[in-house]
Specification:
By secondary structure, the chain is mostly helical. It has four helices and no strands. The longest helix is centred in the N-terminal third of the chain and has 17 residues, at 7-23.
């Protein structure tokens, strides 16, 4: 029902799916997978070079709505050893303020300019992700894998990067004031020009 519809119809379906997930725990994970598949199929992955040239893309309303539902889901209903897959998505400028994306696969996701203030990204896979200019103020990135991630000009003020892997990450111009970096792997990370 989410395919080939108007944005208004998609928004209504997403709202209905959230209600079903809340009221019927047996469908919770199925619905989260439906929503992540919807996001992956409807966001065209672009190269980092192309994305850098056009940072100000607006996320479609139905994509934002699906991501909002995913981000505020009851994580206690998630099955053990399962992972949300938002890899290879282009969700530049998305608002994921206070999102719970713990353990989420965001490999090569394009989150340039995203609002991830106070987001829980503990253990998330963000390898080769584009987080240029993203706001990660007070974000929890404990144990996250950010290898080869683009964090240029990202706001990591007060972010928790305890035991995060930042191997080969590009942190040029990133704000790291009061960030927790103990145990973080900064091997070959680019910290200045």
């Amino acid at each position: 029902m989410l395919s080939n519809n108007t944005i208004e119809t998609s928004l209504a379906v997403i709202n209905d799916l959230e209600q079903i997930a809340q009221n019927h725990p047996q469908y919770h994970w199925i619905i989260m997978n439906i929503l992540t598949n919807f996001v992956r199929k409807n966001t065209i992955h672009v190269s980092q070079e192309e994305a850098i040239n056009n940072l100000s893309v607006k996320v479609r309303a139905d994509i934002q709505a699906a991501l909002t539902v995913i981000a505020r889901r009851d994580v206690n209903k998630d099955p053990e050893n399962e992972q949300l897959d938002l890899s290879h998505t282009d969700i530049r400028g998305v608002n994921l303020n206070r999102a719970n994306l713990q353990q989420t696969n965001l490999y090569q996701a394009n989150l340039a300019g995203a609002n991830l203030t106070e987001a829980n990204l503990a253990g998330a896979i963000l390898s080769a992700a584009n987080l240029e200019g993203a706001n990660l103020y007070l974000a929890n990135l404990e144990g996250a894998i950010l290898s080869a991630a683009n964090l240029k000009r990202a706001n990591l003020y007060l972010a928790n990067l305890h035991y995060a892997s930042l191997y080969l990450a590009d942190l040029h111009g990133a704000i790291l004031n009061d960030a927790i970096l103990d145990g973080a792997n900064l091997r070959e990370a680019k910290l200045s020009e």
